[in-house]
Amino acid sequence: EAQVTQNPRYLITVTGKKLTVTCSQNMNHEYMSWYRQDPGLGLRQIYYSMNVEVTDKGDVPEGYKVSRKEKRNFPLILESPSPNQTSLYFCASSSQTGGRPQHFGDGTRLSIL
Amino acid sequence: GQNIDQPTEMTATEGAIVQINCTYQTSGFNGLFWYQQHAGEAPTFLSYNVLDGLEEKGRFSSFLSRSKGYSYLLLKELQMKDSASYLCAALSGTYKYIFGTGTRLKVLA
User: Is residue A31 less than 8 Å (CB to CB) from chain B?
Assistant: First the structure.
């Protein structure tokens, strides 16, 4: 089954404790992206990757890091999480862009205390 | 700047037709997407327009006017399961997506 898998689905942690949210897709997609979704603000793009070893900043990259060492994986790293990063996070992938629909993972709900 | 506007909430009756509007100001505009998101779930793709005009897909249609920076999603024969948020998203250039805040649609029996 074609899917985008995120882990963990839920996490409560404390300020400053490094964490990684993993994202994996099995569709051989070139393009992958991370979003955060906050009430009243909608989905905002954090980082995206056009292919292996190629990444770029979205609209809200501060406090986040990403890497794309393999085509299927695109982890999101919070080196020193802060409460303002409490949010619902979605990973998405598509075969290139320019009109290709994105497939979204089920989301990761992060609470930073 | 980059901006997308859509109504926050709409209500319609089962069996009716509803139109959800979206206006955008996006540099390097390269297409407009609509996604459906049920509460607590991931967004799922509905439609894509890059040229002016209407795209029809079953009960759902989407329209784009590039000169006006305007799109709408038309839902016909509304069903209870259509109660969800509808997200308008513009592709800026090749890789950057700008999403609206979403329109929460309530379908009443």
Answer: yes
